[in-house]
Amino acid sequence: xxxxxxxxxxxxLGYVLGTRAGRERxxxxxxxxxxxxxxxxxxxxxxxxxxxxxxxAGKAYHAVSEKVxxxxxxxxxxxxxxxxxxxxxxxxxxxxxxxxx
Length: 101
Prior knowledge:
By secondary structure, the chain is mainly α. The chain has helices at residues 2-18, 23-38, 40-68, 74-89. The longest helix is centred in the middle third of the chain and has 29 residues, at 40-68.
């Protein structure tokens, strides 16, 4: 699904950048994209997909941690622990200053 969305986004971007229709067509596309993004059905679907992704990531984390166990070097364990503490107590931003939402 991610690859399809990337492909469609690439097509749209290519069309916008390569079009000879000018500013008016660009504004029409921009308005349409904004309407789609603000559609409650689209927003609910996106939130549902994000929630499912978080659930799958949590399951994968537990499955990997059970199999890996104590085989992870201490430096990695400390880094993960510090990131968890920072995200629960801190700003929720990563090293690049972007939010983790």
